Structure formats: C-alpha cells, structure tokens
C-alpha cells in the first residue's frame, strides 16, 4: 500500500531520491513469516520506513543530495540501517535532503526540491524535508532524520509531524555521513509521539563503532510516551524560554505557542518563564562551528576515494582533478560553508572565530543547566514561521539560517529536543510545531510531555 501511495504522490511531492520496492517487499514478506511463526524481530517488524539519504546502505545508493556521491553505493551499512533491518523494519527507500544536510528547505538538494504536502508551492523544511514530507504525504508511517542544527525538528514543525533529536551520543553516528561531528545526531520521525518513541528504542543505544556513543541504558521513551498519553502532567515543571518570542516571529506561530502553554497548564503542568540570555548568540556560534567542522569533514571528497571524478583524462594532474571535481561536485551552499569554515579555522583567525564560538557554546550549555535547575523541560515554538514558499529564501542565506533560530541551542549543548504538532497558524492554515527541550539523557521527558500534549 505504501509503495502504491509513493507511486501516486511522488510526481508532486518528490520526497524520495531512491525507492527500493523489490527489496522492501521481500523484507515485508520475511517479517510476515516471522510474525506468523511467533518470531517477530521487534514490535516494529514489518513496518515501512523512509531513511534520509545520509546513512550508508549496502542495497541502495547514498548520495547525501550531492552530485559528489551520485550513484555511490557504500560497502557497509550504517549502524542505524543495520539496527532497523535487525528489528525487521522495512526500508522503503532513501529520502531527499539539502546537500550534505546543509540547509533549511531541501532546496539545496542537487536532485531538485521536495514539496510540502500541505501546499506544494512551499518547502517542507530542511535539511530532512524528504523524510518529513514522506510522513505528511502518508508515503511512510516512520522515517529517520538527522539533526545538526534543527534538520529533524524544523521539517517536522512545518509538515505537522513529530521529530526528535535525541541526546547527542544517544544514537550511533557510524555510517552517518559527517557534516559537523560534534553536533550531528540521528533521530526518529513519525506522525505520533508513540510511533517516534518505538522507533527511538530500535535505533538508540551504545555502539562501539562510534567513539561518542553513550555507554548507558537508553531512556525508557516508549513507557514515557504511554504514561504521557494519559494526559496528566501534574508535578511536571515547564519553562517558557523568554528569549524565543518577539521580532521575527509570525503572529500565528506565537498565538499557537501561547495556546500550547495554556494546554500544558490545563494538563496540570506548572509553567514558569525562564531566561536563557545567551541563546541569542547561538545562531552566530553555530554558523562558525558547523562550517568549521564541515570544512574538515568534507575534505575526504577528493575525487580519489568516493564517487565523482572529473578531468581524469591524462591531461590533468592530481590537484587539478581534485579541484575540478570539487568545483563541479559541490553546490553553492556547501562551497560557502567550506570557505567560511576554512577561514574561521585558519591561523590568526582561529581564536577570534572558532575559539570564541566554542566559548559561547559553553555559555549556552550553562544557560540550559541553570534553567534545568528550575524546570524539568523547556518549551518554545520550533520555528519562527510556518513553511515558506519555494524560492523565497533561496538567494538569502541569512534568511534561510534564521529558520533554525530556536532549534540550534539544543544541538550546541547536546541536549534532547522534540517538535510536536501544535495545530495550524490562523493566518495561513499551515502547521506549527511546539518544541520541547530536556537535559541530556532525559529524552523520556520529551515523550511524556509530547504525548500528553498531542
Ligand atoms: N539548517 C541548519 C544548517 O543548514 C541545520 C542543518 C541540519 O540540522 N543538518 O546548518
């Protein structure tokens, strides 16, 4: 049924870069057989899923939305893909994304944009717009995204779906093509909080192949979602981040957020306002740290090891082949980041830019720490606006970067964070997301509050 649905809506939505129908049907048949024999691999065995095209998979290409990796099929499975397969989850295909996960609209994909199923003229957010659009268009009931600065939560918000960035280190990054290694985190996407929780438990947990993977029990997120579904938040202290409102926020988004706060109060939560004074510097710090790490990580695309190779014709030397390949293989945004990052890391500028950004990062972590002395979770709008029109911000990087204003602090601090649907904006009828933020390793709190609220 999902393959039929994909065939019917893909010409309009373009959520997928690759669909593996044959393999998916076989995996589904195997899951059915196991279940009939009382040997279901997990509660999600046989459930279809859309996988962001940034995870390595041996049976499908992994392009990261880039010409650089067009047609590249990896020799190994990412831990996330491997765990999904072990759990009997059926991987339908790979979803569209901004090139190397850099963007907030999926327009930076080398293979054309994904369209928001709510309004095909609008973006589905990014970088994981393909995964969230696939959920919103009912092409898949579950999806996986990655969130470096908001790429799971921001698309979830603007497509009316659920997206979770787990605690940094909660889900293995092995086989997740690196953008900014100290920020990248894989996470579950679904149409309900409970669905996301069940998927979270399949992919999370220690992995010796990732040195930053946390060696501790996975938070009990499914139990928390079930508990939250009873709708009782008595004893839960919720902090409203004062700094996430005002200029730049759409009226309908703020109205929806205020209504969400009223709902949380009516569910028994104790709501207070808290201040996180350094959050206003998060965007600036992020756009030094993320490009710096990306400039280093993307050095591996040197025309020798992976994918594209241009000018290998006996006329050009090695250095020329490398530069021709990088010139043609990378899109404009990726080049912008590599240049910014290389500059910020260069001798004489390192302390002023990268070093300074790392200090700001510490201050943001401290803001969170002192807020979490007063409250159990923090809430804010997920995004300042609803989905914008395709093309509207394409030539204005600063406007594009602002889409992640509210999501970035949790990445810088490594905390857990979720976006849950919060109705539609009265102005344009488009979905709005409520962001819930919790301390590291307290992912279960997100699910309890999210399930109570949805
Ligand atoms: N929009 C942000 C960026 O372009 C976040 C991307 C992400 O989370 N992968 O860097």
From TrEMBL:
<feature type="active site" description="Charge relay system">
    <location>
        <position position="127"/>
    </location>
</feature>
<feature type="domain" description="Amidase">
    <location>
        <begin position="1"/>
        <end position="446"/>
    </location>
</feature>
<keyword id="KW-0648">Protein biosynthesis</keyword>
<dbReference type="InterPro" id="IPR020556">
    <property type="entry name" value="Amidase_CS"/>
</dbReference>
<dbReference type="InterPro" id="IPR036928">
    <property type="entry name" value="AS_sf"/>
</dbReference>
<comment type="similarity">
    <text>Belongs to the amidase family. GatA subfamily.</text>
</comment>
<keyword id="KW-0547">Nucleotide-binding</keyword>
<dbReference type="InterPro" id="IPR000120">
    <property type="entry name" value="Amidase"/>
</dbReference>
<keyword id="KW-0808">Transferase</keyword>
<keyword id="KW-0067">ATP-binding</keyword>
<feature type="active site" description="Acyl-ester intermediate">
    <location>
        <position position="151"/>
    </location>
</feature>
<dbReference type="GO" id="GO:0030956">
    <property type="term" value="C:glutamyl-tRNA(Gln) amidotransferase complex"/>
</dbReference>
<dbReference type="InterPro" id="IPR004412">
    <property type="entry name" value="GatA"/>
</dbReference>
<dbReference type="Pfam" id="PF01425">
    <property type="entry name" value="Amidase"/>
</dbReference>
<dbReference type="GO" id="GO:0005524">
    <property type="term" value="F:ATP binding"/>
</dbReference>
<keyword id="KW-0436">Ligase</keyword>
<comment type="subunit">
    <text>Heterotrimer of A, B and C subunits.</text>
</comment>
<dbReference type="InterPro" id="IPR023631">
    <property type="entry name" value="Amidase_dom"/>
</dbReference>
<feature type="active site" description="Charge relay system">
    <location>
        <position position="52"/>
    </location>
</feature>
<dbReference type="GO" id="GO:0050567">
    <property type="term" value="F:glutaminyl-tRNA synthase (glutamine-hydrolyzing) activity"/>
</dbReference>
<dbReference type="GO" id="GO:0016740">
    <property type="term" value="F:transferase activity"/>
</dbReference>
<comment type="function">
    <text>Allows the formation of correctly charged Gln-tRNA(Gln) through the transamidation of misacylated Glu-tRNA(Gln) in organisms which lack glutaminyl-tRNA synthetase. The reaction takes place in the presence of glutamine and ATP through an activated gamma-phospho-Glu-tRNA(Gln).</text>
</comment>
<protein>
    <recommendedName>
        <fullName>Glutamyl-tRNA(Gln) amidotransferase subunit A</fullName>
        <ecNumber>6.3.5.7</ecNumber>
    </recommendedName>
</protein>
<dbReference type="GO" id="GO:0006412">
    <property type="term" value="P:translation"/>
</dbReference>
């Amino acid at each position: 049924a999902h393959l039929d649905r994909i065939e019917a809506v893909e010409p309009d939505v373009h959520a997928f870069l690759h669909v593996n129908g044959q393999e998916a049907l076989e995996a589904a048949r195997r899951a059915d057989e196991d279940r009939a024999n009382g040997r279901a691999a997990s509660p999600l065995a046989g459930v279809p899923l859309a996988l962001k095209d940034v995870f390595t998979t041996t049976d499908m290409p992994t392009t990261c939305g880039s010409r650089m990796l067009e047609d590249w099929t990896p020799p190994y499975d990412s831990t996330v893909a491997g765990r999904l397969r072990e759990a009997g989850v059926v991987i339908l295909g790979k979803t569209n994304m901004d090139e190397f996960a850099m963007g907030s609209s999926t327009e930076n994909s080398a293979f054309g944009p994904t369209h928001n199923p709510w309004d095909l003229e609008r973006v589905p957010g990014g970088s994981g717009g393909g995964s969230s659009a696939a959920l919103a268009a009912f092409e898949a009931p579950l999806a996986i995204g990655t969130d470096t600065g908001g790429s799971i939560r921001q698309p979830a918000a603007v497509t009316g779906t659920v997206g979770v960035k787990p605690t940094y280190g909660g889900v293995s990054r092995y086989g997740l093509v690196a953008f900014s290694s100290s920020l990248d985190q894989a996470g579950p996407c679904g149409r309900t909080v409970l669905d996301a929780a069940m998927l979270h438990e399949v992919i999370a947990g220690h992995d010796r192949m990732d040195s930053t993977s946390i060696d501790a029990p996975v938070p009990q997120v499914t139990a928390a979602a079930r508990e939250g579904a009873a709708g009782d938040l008595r004893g839960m202290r919720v902090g409203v981040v004062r700094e996430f409102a005002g200029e730049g926020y759409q009226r309908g988004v703020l109205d929806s957020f205020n209504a969400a706060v009223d709902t949380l109060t009516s569910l028994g939560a104790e709501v207070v306002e808290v201040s996180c004074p350094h959050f206003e510097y998060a965007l600036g710090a992020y756009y030094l740290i993320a490009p710096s790490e990306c400039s280093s990580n993307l050095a591996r695309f040197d025309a020798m090891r992976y994918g594209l190779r241009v000018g290998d014709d006996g006329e050009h030397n090695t250095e020329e082949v490398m530069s021709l390949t990088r010139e043609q293989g990378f899109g404009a945004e990726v080049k912008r980041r590599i240049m910014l990052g290389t500059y910020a890391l260069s001798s004489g500028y390192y302390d002023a830019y990268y070093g300074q950004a790392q200090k700001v990062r510490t201050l943001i972590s401290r803001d969170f720490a002192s807020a979490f002395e007063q409250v159990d979770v923090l809430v804010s709008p997920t995004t300042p606006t609803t989905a914008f029109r395709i093309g509207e911000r394409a030539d204005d990087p600063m406007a594009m970067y602002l889409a992640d204003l509210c999501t970035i602090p949790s990445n810088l601090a490594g905390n857990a964070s979720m976006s849950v649907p919060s109705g539609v904006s009265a102005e344009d009828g488009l979905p709005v997301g409520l962001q819930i933020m919790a301390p590291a390793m307290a992912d279960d709190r997100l699910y309890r509050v999210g399930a109570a609220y949805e």
